[in-house]
Amino acid sequence: MGADSIDLYSVSFWVFVAAAVLILLPIESPRIRKWALAIVNLAFVGFYLRDRVVYIAGGLLAANAILHALRPDRPRLARVVFTLAGAIVLALFLIHKTPDLYVRYAAEARSINPILAIVGFSYVALRWVEVSRSVFEGRSAPPDVPSTINYLIPFHMLAAGPIQAYDEFATQPAIRPPLGAVESLEAFERIAAGLFKKYVLANIIEHLIKTDFRAGFPLFPIELQFNYIWLYLDFSAYSDIAVGIGRLIGAATPENFNRPYLARNMIDYWERWHVSLSLFIRRNVFYPLQLALMRASGGSYQLGAASLAFAVSFLLCGLWHQVSWNWLAWGGYHAAGLVVCNAYRAFLLKRLGRKGLNRYMENRWIKWIMIVITFEYTAISLMLVTGKIADSFWWRGIRP
Amino acid sequence: MIKEIEGTPIGRFALRAGWVAVRLWLVFLVGQKGALFFYQAF
Question: Do the Cβ atoms of B26 and A182 come within 8 Å?
C-alpha cells in the first residue's frame, strides 16, 4: 500500500481484509483474539504509514497510560490528566482540521497531518472523548493495551466511521458466535451494497450530473437534489462496507444510516443520518448542556434550554467537520432547523394536545409534504459546504 | 419460477448470493470501463 489515503477500490485493501478474516476467524481464546485484532489494526495503519506507524503506536501506548491515570480514587490527579489529555487531542484535531492555521504558524507541523489523516483523526478524537469520559466518570474500567488500540483505530472504521460508543464497545462479547453461511452472506450483501452504491451509483451521478454547482441554472435545481443523493450513496457506502467487514471479523460496528431521505423533520433527520455522530453529540454535548441549563434556570425555560443546547451542539458539529466559516454556517443552519422543529412540536402539543398531535403526525399528506421540505432543507444545507457556491460567500475572505 | 426458487431456503440463499455477485461484477465493470459505461452503452 504505502498510499496517503485509504482506497476501498484497491486490491491490496481487500487482500488485507481477507487476511484479517482468515487470521481472526479460527481464534477461540478471547485474549488471543483481542491481541490478534490489535495487531491487525496496527498492521493496517503500518501498510499506509510504513515506519511512521511508530508514532501511532507510541500515541496509543500514551493514550492507554493516560486512561490508567484517570483513577477515581485520585480525583484531583484524574481531573488534571483528563484536562491535559483533552487539550492535546484538541490541538492535534486543530492541526488536522485547520490547514491554514498551522501552515501559517508552524509549517513543520505539516508532516503530522498525513499521519493524522490515515487514522481519520477527527473520528479518533471523538472516540477519545467517549473512552476518556467513560473511565473518568467511573462507568468503565481503563481498557488494556489491545482494547485501547481496537477501540481507537478499528481498521474497518478508519475511512469514514462510524463512531462506536465506548460503553457499547466495553460490553460487547469477547468472542462472537461462529460465522455461519447465512451470516457470511449477510456480511457480503452489506459489502456488495456499499461497493455498488459508491462505485456504481454515486460514480454515475458524479460523472453525469455533479458539476460542483458550476453549471448554474437550469441544471441547478436538479444538481441540488442529486448532490444530496450522491452524498448519501457515497457516505452510507462506507458504513455498509464497515458493517459488513465488522460482521466478518466479529467486531460490533454500529449502523450509521436509516433511510435519511424519508426524514419528516430535522430531529427525525438526525436520527437517520450519520446516526453514530448524532448519538455522540447527544451523549457528550446536547444532554449535559441541556441538563446544566435546566438546572441553572430552575427548570423554567425548557424550550430555551433545548434551543441553546441545539445551537451549541450543531455549531460544534459544523466545526468538527472542518474549522471554517462555511462549516460553522452549516452548523448554524442545521441548528436553526432543529430549534424551529422543536419549537413547532411544542406549539402543536400545546395547541392540539397529545391526541391531536398524534393525529397530525399520522396524516399522510402532512407527512409527505414534511418529507419533501426536510429533503430540500438538507439538500440546500450542502450548498454551504460544496463547490462553487460555497466558495462565493463573502466570509471566505476572512481568515481565522 | 423465481417464486418457486424463493420458496426454498437454498433457493433464497442462491438468489441473494447471485445478486451479490451481480453487484460486485457491476462494480468491477465500472472500475474497468468507467462510470459512464452504462450511459454510453445505450
Answer: no
Give me the pLDDT at residue A67, please: 94
A11 touches chain B (CB under 8 A): no
CB contact under 8 A, A195 and B30: no
Amino acid (1-letter code) at residue A387: G
What residue in B sits closest to A184 (Cα-Cα)? B17
Q: A199 to chain B: which residues are within 8 Å by CB?
A: 27, 30-31
Residue of B19, B25, B38 lying closest to A203 (CA atoms): B38
Contact A207 B16 (CB under 8 A): no
Cβ(A120)–Cβ(A45) below 8 Å: no
**Prior bond of A218 cis (ω within 30°):** yes
A261 to chain B, any CB pair closer than 8 A? The answer is no
Angle at A45 (CA atoms; ends A39, A47), nearest 5 degrees = 100
Of B9 and A332, which is predicted with more confidence?
A: A332
Alpha-carbon gap: B30 to the closest alpha carbon of chain A (Å): 6
Q: How many CB atoms lie within 10 A of CB A45?
A: 23
Task: Write the DSSP string, A178-247.
Answer: P--HHHHHHHHHHHHHHHHIIIIIIHHHHHHT--TT-S-TTTHHHHHHHHHHHHHHHHHHHHHHHHHHHH
Q: Which residues of A touch B35 (CB under 8 A)?
A: 200, 203-204, 206-208
Q: What is the pLDDT of residues A41-83, one digit of tens each?
A: 999 999 888 888 899 999 999 999 999 999 778 888 899 999 9
Helix (H/G/I), strand (E/B), else coil: A130: helix
Whether B17 and A182 lie within 8 Å, measured CB to CB? no
Residue A108: its H or E element: none
Q: What is the pLDDT of residues A257-284, one digit of tens each?
A: 999 999 999 999 999 999 999 999 999 9
- For chain A, first and last CA: distance in Å? 36
Which contiguous run of DSSP H or E holds residue A29? none
pLDDT tens for B19-28 read 999 999 988 8
* Half-sphere exposure for A355 (CA within 13 Å, toward CB): 0
ipTM exceeding the 0.90 mark: no
